[in-house]
Specification:
about 200 residues; alpha+beta; 6 strands; about 45% helix; about 20% strand
Length: about 200
């Protein structure tokens, strides 16, 4: 059942554009009629199934989508360069679905600087608050969502002192991978692979 849930969750993420592993595995478990006591697969198991699914069933369109999204991310990062941007999430991992957001982490002197930047350029956006974690310590983050040249963009805005800190979405979660402008430029030049490709091309 654990393997079936992992495969079903991967299919949900690929076909329905869900990027949240926890949501995908819960939906998969419900569809398969798994009991609450069933051991759910880990994110790494679902990620492996997702990579296999994309390679098998979306071998043409998925690589093209990743290159397009990373290119758009690089443009956004260049525009936001003064705020120390880093790409993270499914676009960086090479797992972005058809409705994926570009996720950037920013480290400005003040979150208001980012909002002023967007207002001056007539971008409409929505702002909210969130938490990220370094170890078991919570870090405050301002979340800003907007359409950037017809692509959904989500900005996580942190204190500049957190730039050297490894972030997680939950205290027990995995450290969030991220890449700066030079690394993303290398990824765009290499193609649709994962973050390791940037290191190989550097």
């Amino acid at each position: 059942m654990r393997m079936r849930i992992a495969a079903a969750a991967a299919r949900i993420m690929a076909e329905e554009g869900i990027d949240d592993f926890a949501l995908a595995k819960r939906k998969a478990a419900r569809r398969l009629g798994a009991a609450d006591s069933e051991a759910l697969p880990g994110n790494d198991e679902i990620e492996a199934e997702l990579r296999d699914y994309l390679a098998l069933y979306q071998a043409d369109e998925h690589p093209e989508r990743i290159v397009e999204l990373r290119s758009a991310a690089l443009e956004a990062m260049r525009a936001l360069e003064r705020f120390s941007p880093y790409l993270t999430g499914p676009v960086l991992a090479g797992l972005a679905g058809p409705y994926a957001e570009i996720e950037l982490q920013l480290f400005p002197e003040s979150s208001k600087e980012v909002e002023v930047f967007l207002i001056d350029r007539n971008y409409r956006y929505e702002a909210s608050d969130a938490r990220r974690y370094s170890g078991d310590r919570a870090r405050a983050a301002a979340m800003i969502t907007l359409d950037w040249q017809c692509v959904p963009l989500r900005l996580s805005v942190f204190d500049p002192r957190d730039e050297r800190t490894a972030m997680k979405t939950t205290p027990a979660g995995r450290v969030t991978l991220r890449a700066g402008i030079a690394e993303v430029r290398a990824l765009v030049g290499v193609g649709p692979g994962g973050p390791a490709d940037a290191a190989r091309s550097a």
